[in-house]
Each structure stands twice: as structure tokens, then as C-alpha cells.
Amino acid sequence: MRLLFVLLFAALPALAQSPVAISVLERRNVLLDASQDSASHELRLTLVYLDGTGWTPDEIAGAAKESARILGQCGLMLRSAELVRVAAPTRFHDFQTPTSRELATTLQLAKPTVYFVSGTRQSPAFDAEAIGRGNSRSRPELRDSVWVTRGTRDLGIAVTHELAHVLMDSGAHSDEPDNLMRDETAPGNTRLSTAQCGRLRETGTANSLLRPR
Fold this sequence. Notes:
Elements: H1 2-16, E1 23-31, E2 41-43, E3 45-50, H2 57-71, E4 76-77, E5 80-87, E6 94-95, H3 97-107, E7 113-116, E8 119-120, E9 128-131, E10 145-148, H4 155-168, H5 194-206, E11 210-212
Parallel strand pairs: 2-4, 3-5, 3-7, 6-8, 7-10
Antiparallel strand pairs: 1-5, 2-11, 9-10
Helix pairs in contact: 2-4, 4-5
């Protein structure tokens, strides 16, 4: 019995240092929009979903295709995106700063990255959240990312809204009718003004999130 106790005690440091079981199960490209040949800039997205969170590739691709259509008004082309399927313990299935920082650090995926998760443990709790340069100083691992929960309404519009926050590096909202950046998403809210498009292109390019064509 004493020998067993000694062996278990000796194994504790090794167990404490064992790596977290986060792994990429599949990576593939999905075609989003091949019609934006006159676009001035290109956006390449990384779309991540975790096994066990209920997300399917089809609904994620559908949301990204809607983003391609909406952002096309600003001269952006989203020809394709990388879809990444990830296995991770359930504590990573919800958005929460400490665990989500660990997830992003382990995966080291290209930016901007959109994570499709189960829920959120943040307070206040938002259906979707954008993390740009201005609101990531205390959590740099999450910079240039969007986190989308299963409860998100108007999915494609919501994803595009949050991406625009990241690309413009601004948390500002708009009161203009039908504007994408109104604080509440709705099926008709898809328009971006000339000034918004200009900031989106300029800031997104300066932060290496967009590529001029």
C-alpha cells in the first residue's frame, strides 16, 4: 500500500503537466463567392467549429456565403474560406475569456477567425462577440476573432456584423435605417455606408486582415 501511494504521488506532476486534448480533426476549403472579379480587396476567413456544439458545415458555409454577399458592396471578395473541425473538452465549448484564450493559443489559426461555439459564459452575455485590436489588450490571443453561439439570430447577418467590427477595429453602432451596424441584427439590416466601407477597407488592410487586389 505504501509503495502504491509513493507511485501515485510521483505521477501527480506528470498528470498536472499533461497537454490538453485539443486537436484538429479536419480542414477543408469551402467556396463562397466566385463572382467578385471587380473587387478591390480580398478577405480570407478561417471558420472553426467544435465537435459536440451542434454546428454543421452547411449552416456555417451558408452564413459565410451571406457575409460574402453583404461585404461585396464594399468591394471585398470572399472567394473561399478554410473550414476547421476541432475536438476539445466540453469546457472549451462555450466562449469564456480564459478557456477561449487557451483554445486559440493551442490552435494558432490564421486570422480573422470565426469560432462557432455552443454558448457563452461571459458577463454580459452576447449571442456573438467581436474582438479586434482595441478590445483585446488584456487578451491578445483572441485578437481579430469572432465568437458565435448557437442562440444567434439572423446568423449570416450577425456574423457579418461582427466581422465588420473586427475589420473596422471599432465597436461603434449606427442608427441609420437598414444599416448592418445597427445594434440589433434583422433580416433587412445589410447596408453599409460609403464611410463604413472606406474604414473597413483601410483599417482591415492596415491590420493585414485584407489583401488589396
